[in-house]
Protein: XRE family transcriptional regulator
Organism: Micromonospora craniellae
Amino acid sequence: MGSELLPIGRRVAYWRGRRRMSQQVLADRLGKSKSWVDKVERGVRSLDKVSTIAEVAAVLRIDQATLLGRDRQRSAVDVRADGVERIRAALSTYDMTLGRRAAARDAPSVAHVARSIGHAWTTYQHARYPQLISGLPELVVGAQRCYTLDPGAGRVALVEAYRVTAALLVKLGEGELGWLAVDRAMTIATDDAELVAAAAVQLGQVLRATGRAGSAVSAMRTAAYRIVQADLDGDQPAHLSLCGTLLVQAALAAARQGDERATASLLDEAADLGGRVGDGHDHHRTAFGPTAVAVARAVAALESGDAGEAAALHQEVVRRDGWRWLPTEHRAAYLLDAARAHLQGDDPTRAARILLEADQTAPSEVRHRPSARDLLNQMIRHPDAPMPIIQLATTLAVGRA
């Protein structure tokens, strides 16, 4: 049996033996008793403090990942990084621009691509990011080939393929690459107001993620009002959902800029539309409705620097009937913001409870997002960090710098 399959106490004993140390020698170098070492190795006493794990690893002359048995996790990280590079390669083809048409035998049917995109969005909304990373490159290439063969029939599918790709890349901290995907989506969607508005939702996400809040406010407002003008009846739920979501994106960008008046005005407009749409819908993968706007108000308060207001609004958000109807990804992502608000409000216990709830709701939201790992690292630095958070940090090999 390889050492990476052993419990941590057995790994301590394994590496102690490899270093030809007795329990007493290891104990002396750690400033512990021999009984302490013996109990750790037998699993009677747990190693659940990041600082202690770091000390043991240093004495044994191995890195913390090896002591934690995280060699396999590192391989998984490498696989994910490879997946992002494969997505980059798929986005870096210019066959359409150069007029190189795909052979019919190389292009999947529009129906097949549409089904695959539906599955990709479902996977995203359930926060199953590793699976999505694995399948997206083939989906993007297939959608591009389908479009080159029949631009009319393949247009919507390609825009949606780029949208879900951009949404995932923002989650993974790959904002600039996400910008490439959403720029492709906006270009393909040109002259179709509904498609442009749908692609603009991810444009707003990318602009905010890459620090371009000013551009996001302007672009989101323009796209929102354009889709309303295109809706002659003024009551199509899909159009209202897109308009409302774009106004939310604009509000969050305005909050980041510190423009409280614009933030409040935009959220009030979105709330009016949310009331007309209602909760429990997912037009254009927006999950827009009154509860989505309530979530946005809490996040906007945090973006504006008012952690106390964000924490207070959180209590109202999770009590709403519509809370459970939001997609898993939406709820888990918001919980990370709520945890951050409570941490900034010097309530590490409540912040930890919310972060653990996010991890239970959607593990990949915590374990695969760089921003979530940064939040976890901030939490364990707090002198009152609760033990469950330290244990989660240990599991994910997140430690004090």
About this structure: The first helix runs from residue 8 to 18. The chain has three domains: 3-67, 72-189, 191-362+385-401. The CA atoms of residues 123 and 132 lie 6 Å apart. The chain is about 75% helix and 0% strand.
